Amino acid sequence: MFEKDYDVIVVGGGHAGAEAAAASANMGSKTLLVTMNLQNIGQMSCNPAMGGIAKGQIVREIDALGGYSGIVTDKSAIQFKMLNKSKGPAMWSPRAQNDRMRFAEEWRLALENTPNVDFYQEMVSGLLVEGDTIVGVRTSLGIDIRAKAVVLTNGTFLNGLIHIGEKQFGGGRAGEKAATGITEQLVDFGFDSGRMKTGTPPRVDGRSLDYDKMIPQPGDENPEKFSYLNTDILKTQRDCHMTHTSALVHDLLREGFDRSPMFNGRIKSIGPRYCPSIEDKINRFSDKDSHQIFVEPEGWHTVEVYVNGFSTSLPEDIQYNALKSVKGFEKVKFFRPGYAIEYDYFPPTQLKHTLETKLLNNLYFAGQINGTTGYEEAASQGLMAGINAHLKINEREPFILKRDEAYIGVLVDDLITKGTEEPYRMFTSRAEYRTLLRQDNADLRLTPKSFDIGLASKERLKKMEDKHHKSNSFVHFFRKTSFTPEEINPILESVSSSPVRQSDKLFKVFSRPKVTMEHMLQLESVSSFVNEHEFNSEVLEQAEIQVKYSGYIAKEKNNADKLHRLENVKIPDNFDYSKLKSLSYEAREKLEAIRPVTISQASRISGVSPSDVSVLLVFLGR
Fold this sequence. Notes:
36% of the residues lie in helices and 18% in strands. It contains 21 helices and 22 strands.
């Protein structure tokens, strides 16, 4: 069936697998995507949404690098919101509600229209290994398929076990069987594995809900989009709705706690801290008698509804009785109950920054197999694994993003350096340089890097260069152009800002907190310049951020430069930490296990103190 070897085999067709296959293929590798069900490529297993706080920045970064997630999101969106708009631009986070069926369809079509991608539907049950190098995969039918590199993106399928109350059964997702064989083989090779859990809420029939009793949650009045390419902006949107649980709902849920797998010991693995089940919320926040429930439509035309905030593994009768007592859900009809799922993962400290495993050459892990949670986190890892698999087999330098270059860089560095014992989710607070890593400038940060390695297209690069040139010229205009008190003071008075007595540069007055681009466009000199150069809203936003936050941006760049000095201090591959008796025992143990590449990476390992870093610097002659 497979007459020739592939360059890259990607196992799994979820968000990580789809991005990995697209990246390696678009860079020129002959790629095979093997998945258990070709109908579920790009499936939204949980909520029908992309983006959100920090996650939206990741989708923008994927798009800037030449990935597909932003394009697919735009083509299947039913609502768009920019979150945290009342805060500074480092916190602005795009989020879209999506049509679940269209999202998967757009992913399938995007991959089918990508040259170099082949497809095969079957379960991969084993890996082909020669010495310490992966050379292919073996399917459940016993078919061997050879490749130069393999990317595993198994999601929640590795020995997946679904829990609903006291019932449990094997499965990687509702209605789909679990994948077996791979975990056991990897453990035999010396890999450490663990178990994690995640959950999902019930899906219900929207025709049975009373939306008049809920609070509408519309999209933005002037919606934006994710992709930097020319995808369409939404002209019409679907509302979501919000309702709340109550003390009665909580009491009804508590009746099933003794039958809950989370409380009776059936589930021993750790779930996502920041996306707890409804029973976990009731237990952890016992002082609260109400929690928000977001009612999210699954698409333009389907009546299926996702009950966000009601993730649960309680018995189905308990779920039903409790949800009926939520305002607007009195006559609710279930499509399917919520459930929890346990699955195998591999602690990511066993990986290099390229996401290649340390034990087996040319084997890459991406997505929930690394202990992360979320479509966006998975997709970004798939993209990076696909890129690096292609680069490795072509004997090219690896592609690694630093912490001050991308949220993706923060994500990978956190996983590799710190590991995770609970499902890892990205937050803006995890990024120490988040003022640099905004959603508005992902193309400026990353598209040139991606173009240099052969992934981002010339079209992307040209659009980025045009935006960069125009926004810089606009900032320069503000720096060199003066205003008079007569023209600026009426604007300052309208926002209760102190008037000026003499002329000065526009840059200075624009830097004031209450003065916006809208105010500046009231000035004849500014509006004429904008019209003359035909600046779009993207250029206006970029220029405004660069003016108003120039001090913060300069400070973070300075801090990042200091970090880079430590990044340049390399640690030899076979460094013997046991020789350094001045290191703490914990530091020696952690450094030996993780094998950091640089002093900077070593400094971020939990258990390595500043004094341990000083010892390393002295020993390395720094």
